[in-house]
Amino acid sequence: MGRLRPYYRRQIAGRITELIGGAQPNYAALSVSASNTTALAREYGLLPSLMNEIDMRYGPLDWRTPQAHAIYWACRGLKARNESIDCHRIIFQCLSSCFFKGRLIFDPQTTS
To answer: Higher model confidence: residue 22 or residue 91?
Structure first.
């Protein structure tokens, strides 16, 4: 089981890279590309408008990482659950992890 995690992380990172064009999306170009916006929403539940809002609030995130996705879903939870302390904790822990781990170094052409 332990060997599958890196495989799935590479697969998700590769697909996110295809959809947004790298680690951080160009939101103006992404809003023009309806197919990528639809794919982001259908495959990952990500709305570019909320992604942009999160980047503006917390700084540019590397959207290929699990931490960015956890922050996204915690922010959605904040809106749905009226400022839940659990969602704030998830955001804090993920931002802390992003700070200490840096960003994802990813070459989609290789298996590492």
So the answer is: 91
- Residue of 91, 31, 28 whose CA lies nearest to 61: 91
Interacting residues of 109 by C-beta distance below 8 A, sequence separation 6+:
none
Task: State the alpha helices, DSSP H only, in the chain.
Answer: 4-20, 27-32, 34-39, 48-58, 66-80, 85-101
Q: Which residues of 84-112 are buried (b: 16+ CB within 10 A; e: fewer)?
A: eeebeebbeebbeebeeeeebebeeeeee
Using a pLDDT cut of 90, give the percent of the chain over it: 47
| Residue that the structure tokens 């890279």 belong to | 17
Q: Specify the pTM.
A: 0.83
Structure tokens at 50: 């909320």
Rounded Cα distance, 86 and 84, in Å: 5
Q: What is the mean pLDDT of residues 32-54?
A: 92
